[in-house]
């Protein structure tokens, strides 16, 4: 599992942690021993793209680990849909063997908690209906790096998110095929196909998530992403898609879809992905991390501390509404003291997609703090401050996502 | 130019021409000499992806030559936007050196036929405005292979087309920056940056196209495609984009944009890309190939003579309106005797994009001829027959694009 494909590996330096050798300005003044130490530390921080993601564009990614890679802020283009080779990857545990995507049509899904339970292949699912949804896929912990409390977990900045198109069969069409769900069902529960090591209680690591029945309305069982067969790195051969809900609820390599009276007994549902107060552990009594809130961030200029020429500048960014369509976005160049309405550009891909925005400005030499704040159709406004929680979920603070540029 | 990148080349067998070795059923009955001959013929038909397109997904493409590659009919996904590595390539002459996309921002564009002529860099263009358009990019000769008259030129079937997103500055914003076009201008003329061999009259091979002023309304100077920097294979660092117009009018590596009283004197404008009557040469008096007509084709099942199981089948395809939004599409399973209205699926990316459609059918064992016909907002209907012309341009015949399947 996660063996490295040496013929295609890309060596990269991670951006987290200590400053790398190349960025030590005064390197000439180091002793040879200190230089060797610095070089050794740099070497340690080089991380390979794992084999299952070896086809990714490494230059566009911050590689945190073999299971966690995010898109760099300046690698989001202006084309609405995130190119697949720049899309973030986040696996809770190691993915199954690449073998399972060799012939996607033979993958089997058990359907339970319905009138006529069945085991059905992807080939059969493809005969039941097909549709495409454009939507934001975002890790629950995106923006965690900005929590001053430094919650444990991957230190995502803005890039554990992308806007993609999933194609598959609507869950509603599948439900019709199996005679409808049981009358007492309260949740849709998806079970991931990751192998569970022998002797382990599955509940300790099984990726199994439950979402409320409202999630069914737009849900898909998807075999395609951005017009390509769904790769293993993104949950192929079959993934449960729940538009508007955070990444973890979109269960990869789904092997079982059940309509249940209770939430999953797996730790990842019972105590994981809960909005626990700071310093407290997750518990079933707390709110589960399901729907995404309204959010936006600036992508161009996408470098914190970028140095730019005085004059005209097109400030660009992304804005998403969560479970309700994004309706507007404002931009500030003074850290949130004053705001101007930005314009959406490019095609509108529907309520679950993000929109690109632009604000043309003319800046004199100086230092500017750029921020953006979005609103959605439900009337939610992107807040100045994050919702504090123990594990650093759902950060949509515009203040946290601001960046400083220098214009010369 | 077009040297092969041996570390990444993909050897493929072209689909045109004689039947390959692998498809000779009775190979066991051939003499050793005949086998050797067949193997040598197969070898000859293997074509490398050229270096500038070595990053393409070779399995998704029919490689006609180093300058002409089309997407296979069954490689169009259901995700509206064509993935870049599956998008067709068509160059009229060999592209410039890959060096020109190393730092796109330094590329220079001359602007003429305006109040204040300038030479401007891509970096400067980026300060003038930015927008994104989703649109069909289609070669003028797409569908040429279906002309019974066998016109000369690449024998494109359906795949010299894709739906992509271009990002750049509106030509109108650039015109505002240079004080507007000359009052006597009748055409927007773009000149490609391909190198012209010494001693040749540039007019004989220069890619220089003129379009009527109506084309300006939605035109861009683009530096990005599908969220990525525009690669050389698709006209990077800068391409003129005229939504609704055939590929050749979207001038690659654009080095000069002029607002002119006359059409370009280049052969490609004067006699090339003209709707000449069959058997006649192109001439300036004939209609130039500019706007695309309404068109559709089926993509799933995407194999001519595909063998399928009786029962439910989701017939899928693509429909485009040309310069007017596509509004509907009908599907026939009996070669056009009867028609049923198909449904559009997935996001609507605007008037210049294509739409995905689906018609669920239940088919008994037998042979079926599948066809689709689209209509647009302007009231144009996709015709049964092609418009005959000497070079095989603008084929939108639904009859020509039909395909036969066998259900067992």
What features would you describe in this structure?
Chains A, B: Its cofactor is Mo-molybdopterin. Chains A, B: Keywords: Metal-binding, Molybdenum, Oxidoreductase. Chains A, B: It holds the Pfam family Oxidored_molyb. Chains A, B: InterPro entries: Ig_E-set, MoCF_OxRdtse_dimer, Mopterin_OxRdtase_euk, OxRdtase_Mopterin-bd_dom, OxRdtase_Mopterin-bd_sf, TAT_signal. Chains A, B: Residues 287-400 form the Moybdenum cofactor oxidoreductase dimerisation domain. The structure is a homodimer of 408-residue chains. Chain A is mainly beta and 408 residues long. Helix content of chain A is 8%, strand content 32%. Chain A is built from 5 helices and 24 strands. Chain A has helices spanning 32-45, 122-125, 171-177, 202-205, 267-270; strands at residues 11-13, 46-48, 61-65, 68-71, 89-90, 108-112, 118-121, 131-138, 161-170, 187-192, 208-212, 220-225, 228-229, 239-241, 254-260, 295-300, 306-308, 311-320, 326-332, 340-341, 343-345, 355-363, 366-376, 403-407. In chain A, the strands form 6 sheets. A 5-stranded mixed sheet of chain A has the order 7-6-15-10-11. In chain A, strands 8, 9, 12, 13 and 14 form a 5-stranded antiparallel sheet that branches. A 5-stranded mixed sheet of chain A has the order 17-24-23-19-20, with no helix packed on it. In chain A, a hairpin with a 5-residue loop joins strand 6 and strand 7 (118-121). The longest helix of chain A has 14 residues, at 32-45. The model of chain A is unreliable at 1-30 (pLDDT under 50). The A-B interface holds A 76-84, 86, 126-134, 165, 167, 224-228, 311-314, 316, 345-350, 353, 356, 358, 360 and B 76-84, 86, 126-134, 165, 167, 224-229, 311-314, 316, 345-350, 353, 356, 358, 360.
